[in-house]
Write a structure and sequence with these properties.
Strand content: 15-25%
Helix content: 25-40%
Mean pLDDT: 89
Shape: globular
């Protein structure tokens, strides 16, 4: 990972009652705390902002996009949970979900947890691993809020871990090895590419590119019991030139599946 240190957010709050909490969060993350927040000014690129309801990553400027947050209750995630296609989704097929089979999954590039949530919705026990402390904080906040909602039973199947996924995978005891390891490494976008989602715009400088993805894939192949699943842009090369056992292709993306052992 090669992040731009100048792109690290400043921690602040739009809710006076949460000022102390925001200050403590800044200290935990080793970030600057702002007594006052000015979203109109571009002197700060983005804030890690504690609002009354959630922790969000908010870019600044007059034409700023909306806040980025981990949300498992409303919006696109709720729509996908209700109408996303269940076991017919590509991610479900890639991870081997069929019939009564619900593998244990380690999503080691967790991001905002959306893929992990889909898998947990379908009945899988999911470990989420995120190495960016800022993204980890966003995800922890989203999970905590959702744990007291109508999706609490789904959230109960998700466990969050911080740190480098290579170290995390290597530290697992034999009995803790996941049946499936899911990877969705950050893929570089050129300025000429189609407009990416607002969270990708916010994350690009913050977390950098996953330059060590070939190393992560190698560790995942050593640790996973049954398969490693890699989410890729449709025309992107295989990671490290390592060809998968087979591929599932969609309109804009695909899954490379490295089959190691039959799931049962």
């Amino acid at each position: 990972m090669s992040a731009d240190m100048n792109a690290l957010p400043v921690v602040g709050t739009s809710c006076a009652a949460r000022s102390k909490e925001a200050c403590e969060l800044a200290r935990e993350l080793g970030l600057v705390f702002a007594e006052e927040v000015d979203l109109e000014s571009a002197s700060v690129a983005q804030y890690l902002l504690l609002t009354e309801d959630a922790l969000v990553l908010q870019q600044t400027g007059r034409k700023r996009p909306g806040p980025v947050l981990a949300d498992f209750v409303s919006g696109a995630v709720a729509h996908r949970r209700q109408f996303g296609g269940g076991k017919g989704q590509m991610i479900a097929k890639a991870c081997g979900i069929k019939g009564s089979i619900r593998p244990t999954v380690a999503d080691v590039t967790a991001g905002l947890g959306r893929d992990g949530f889909v898998l947990a919705t379908l009945g899988c026990e999911v470990s989420l691993v995120e190495r960016s402390p800022v993204v980890h904080a966003l995800l922890a906040d989203g999970l905590a809020r959702a744990a007291d909602s109508e999706v609490a039973d789904i959230i109960a199947r998700m466990r969050l871990y911080g740190g480098d996924a290579r170290d995390w995978l290597s530290s697992l005891a034999e009995a803790e090895r996941p049946q499936v390891v899911h990877l969705d490494p950050m893929f570089p976008h050129s300025d000429k590419s189609a407009q990416v989602k607002k969270e990708m715009l916010a994350f690009r400088d913050l977390v950098g590119e996953d330059a060590d993805q070939a190393e992560l894939l190698a560790v995942a192949l050593e640790v996973a019991e049954c398969r490693v699943v890699v989410k890729r842009p449709r025309k992107a090369p295989s990671i490290g030139g390592r060809e998968p056992s087979y591929k599932l292709e969609g309109k804009s993306g695909r899954y490379d599946i490295y089959a190691l052992k039959k799931l049962d």
